[in-house]
Amino acid sequence: MEPAQLLAIVEGAVRQALEQQQNQFQAQITALATQVQSLQVEAPQIITYEKISVDPDAKCDIPLDIIKSVPDFTGAQDEYVAWRQAAIYAYELFKNFPKSTAHYQAVAIIRNKIKGSAGALLVSHNTVLNFDAILARLDCTYSDKTSLRLLRQSLELVSQGEMSLMQYYDDVEKKLTLVTNKIVMSHDQEGADLLNREVRDDALHAFISGLKKSLRAVVFPAQPKDLPSALALAREAEASIERSMFANSYAKALQDRAQIAEGNKVRAQGKPTRFNKDEQNQERNPHFVKRQKGWPQPQAPKDNQTEAPQPMEVDSSSRFRQKTDYSKRQANESNAPKHKNSSDRSTGQKRQRVNNVVQTDSKEAVTEYDKSVNFLGNTPGFRTSNGGWLGEL
To answer: Where is this region: Disordered (predicted)?
Structure first.
């Protein structure tokens, strides 16, 4: 092959490769330009609403009763979504007759249903008599500005905690209402229906997951289909738990009362018997000797039982003191039964014996007696009760 032919072949191949590469680069540039255009933020278009008009040729025979049934709206934000839905449902019948007299009357009646702060809002913004314009102005003021993502997250994180079952259910319903209202306000009818079903399923799972452990263990296996069914199961489980707790507390109260009555009965019976006390003493003291029933019981010494001496009349001629019979008292003490010791190591009560019992008259008594003897010079005598005299004269 000649060199000129080889050179032509090489040049053709290079040219073809360059063209392919150039086409690829051009395609990439076009794609990037398209992406850049899509990233540009376009200013939202301002929708201008015009006042509705009446065409005499337009006919509409629909009665206005349904429009008259729409409730009044005074500016309460919690009531706005419900009022908005009622107004939309009533207006649907007249929507297809835009220039008829009935359509004009329907919009005017709805406008007159808006009172209070909401009516003042429409007047201050100079809202025209147009149903879409009225709803747009009210949506801008009374709709919830929180994002749908945050509302759904708040619904999924609910928990019962210290709330009662009904309070917890009301809290879940309130959060669910906020989510559904946001969906209704920001989506069309078909998309709102689909999202509402999904949100209600999420609310059911969140309600069951946030229950207390004892209630969740009963409700979760039952797999309820909706929130009211889950609430009914939870209330039944709560009532069953309360009944069991009451039965346990009642049984415990009866048991405590029986124990108190038994303790009172034992205290009323008094102290333990002597036999039991003797057995306890025998266990404590190995030298303890059990007392037999036939043994004499210890008696208190008679010295403690003797009565105090009473004064008596003494003859003036005698000054002797009353004689104490010590021998008799000692004999009585010796004849008294003795108490046997309860232990061989213990000793009895020590007694001190009086060996010398001697009474001596004082010197003054002896001197007076000698004087009475020597007064007559004879031995003393005394007169008897018969008038006689004994002794020497």
So the answer is: 262-365
Strands (E), the chain: 382-383, 389-390
Residues facing 382 on adjacent strands: 390
Long-range contact set of residues 35-38: C-beta below 8 Å, sequence gap at least 24 = none
d(CA 352, CA 336) in angstroms, rounded, equals 16
Per-residue pLDDT, averaged over 74-97, amounts to 90
Q: Which residues contact 53 (CB under 8 A, 6 or more apart)?
A: 99, 104
Confidence of residue 205 (pLDDT cuts 50, 70, 90): very high
How far is the C-alpha of 160 from the C-alpha of 120, rounded, in Å? 41
Total number of residues shown for the chain: 393
Provide φ and ψ at 369, rounded to 5°.
-65, -40
CA atoms within 13 A on the CB side of 381: 12
Among 215, 207, 216, smallest CA distance to 168 is for: 207
Percent of the chain at pLDDT above 70?
Answer: 66
Burial category of 179 from C-beta neighbours within 10 Å (exposed 0-12, middle 13-18, buried 19 and up): buried
Half-sphere exposure at residue 376, Cβ-oriented, CA atoms within 13 angstroms? 9
Which pLDDT band holds residue 117 (cuts at 50, 70, 90)?
very high
Tokens of 351: 């007694």
Q: Which helix or strand (DSSP H or E) is residue 23 part of?
A: helix 3-39
φ and ψ at 137, to 5 degrees? -70, -40
pTM of the model: 0.47
Q: Round to whole Å and give the CA distance between 132 and 143.
A: 15
